[in-house]
Amino acid sequence: MKRINPPYEPHRIKSVEPIHLLSREEREKKITAANYNIFKLDAADIYIDLLTDSGTTAMSAKQWAALMLGDESYAGAVSFRHFEATVRDIFHKQFVIPCHQGRSAENLMFSTVVKHGQYVLNNTHFDTTKGNTLHKGGIPVDLPCPEAALDEPAPFKGNMDIVKLDDFIREHGADAIAMVMLTITNNSVGGQPVSMENIHAVSDICRKYHIPFYFDCARFAENCYFVKRDEPGYHDKSIAEIAAETFDACDGVLMSAKKDGMANIGGFIALNDEDLYRRLTELMIIVEGFPTYGGLAGRDLEVLAVGLHEAMNLDYLAYRINQVAYFGELIKQAGMPIVEPTGGHAVFIDAGAFLPHIPAEQFPGQSLAVEFYREGGVRVVEIGSLMFGDIDPETGKAQTPPKELVRMALPRRVYTNTHYNYVAEIAAKIVEHKKNLPGYKITRQSPLLRHFTCDLKAVNPKGVTV
């Protein structure tokens, strides 16, 4: 086996939290009691938790210090002014609306601007963005670039298909489209980045047809790092300069700051349209909170004001991206196919290719996710037909995504390289008995975002319960 050199941490550990590995028998009982839904497992029963990188960050010493400065005034708190100034500086937008997390920002935005039957175009919607669009009567449409479906590496597989975007607008008309969004990085296709060239091309088309253009920018700093590293003309630019160019191209941003905000809670909307800002804040006061706190404590706003800048630190970003790549190589060497190149926040296993004996309707990604917990107490998440197998609003048929993936998301500054070595060892053990893994079927589900709460049972390839 080829030796892989791990990246070296640009930080040292100041506080530790104990974790405990349950016995195999205990893990079997826990996953059975959870009806094979990994979201229903208690965190205390997980050894290595790679479910998400959202809100799972380890905060820095500066963030912990900032937390103590929180101004908890109901209106016009000093902490909000610090947060507002930071967002204006990085994202180049005048009006800043804090929210308690990204899906709240989506709810506010889509409730205000999406009319029933309108389209929301995206390079690829993630689950909550898609769910919020459908909930408001909109129609989510994904327009990933052709490279996204290919197995071979390409530098910017998160791009939007420009030709399809222009064709769609001309076919349906600009009035039928509520907005165009770019998700950076593109989570659903493997955490893949979007190039600056693609950002400008999407912006030009939206301005041509007078369609609002927004970013889902939860992982904006990671995307900026890929642009700096891989796109000609940007090697000598700072992350802040690349971020400025990125956000000058759009009308506004929605962010779950639980990712590249380096915090455990928080999000925001930022835009320049004063009329839309006023409409959003009118709704916000009803459902979320006063416009200067938006469901967050003052201390949370102080933490975000520090974390948004820390996320753009070049040493941190180089370590972050290289640790994901290191982990991806370990998983490949263990014998599991992954999406290549690795993206910014996670390693994505191609569960469909790894478990060809399990058809998409029996959720091969969920089978692998269950097995990671059963074999080693590791929690990962399915990104396939369980998560995205909703009914198409236009055809009435169940949708099947292009790939059946399992995402192993790396919490920021939480696990060491040794922890990822352990996960790779578990992957190698699963490879040895992969032909014995069963499929699963749903026994109970909700109409939207079913993967969070559904119950499942194991079945053999013919659909018989095992």
Morphology call: globular
What is the overall number of helices?
A: 16
What is the CATH class name of the largest domain? Alpha Beta
Gyration radius, rounded: 22 Å
Q: What are the segments in which pLDDT stays under 50 over at least 5 consecutive residues? A: none
Count the strands?
14
N-C termini distance: 36 Å
Characterise the protein shown here.
With 466 residues, the protein is an alpha/beta fold. The protein has helices spanning 24-33, 61-67, 78-91, 102-113, 127-135, 162-172, 196-209, 220-230, 239-248, 274-287, 298-310, 314-334, 351-354, 364-376, 385-388, 417-432; strands at residues 48-49, 95-99, 119-122, 139-142, 177-183, 213-216, 252-256, 267-271, 346-350, 378-379, 381-383, 405-409, 439-444, 455-459. The chain folds into 2 domains: 24-53 and 314-459, Aspartate Aminotransferase, domain 1 (Alpha-Beta Complex), CATH 3.90.1150.10; 61-310, Type I PLP-dependent aspartate aminotransferase-like (Major domain) (Aspartate Aminotransferase, domain 2), CATH 3.40.640.10. Helices cover 39% and strands 13% of the residues. The strands form 4 sheets. It has a 7-stranded mixed beta sheet with strand order 2-8-7-6-5-3-4, with helices on both faces. A 3-stranded antiparallel beta sheet has the order 9-12-11. Strands 1-10 form a two-stranded parallel sheet. Strand 5, helix 7 and strand 6 form a beta-alpha-beta unit. The longest helix is centred in the C-terminal third of the chain and has 21 residues, at 314-334. The protein is globular, with a radius of gyration of 22 Å. The two termini are 36 Å apart.
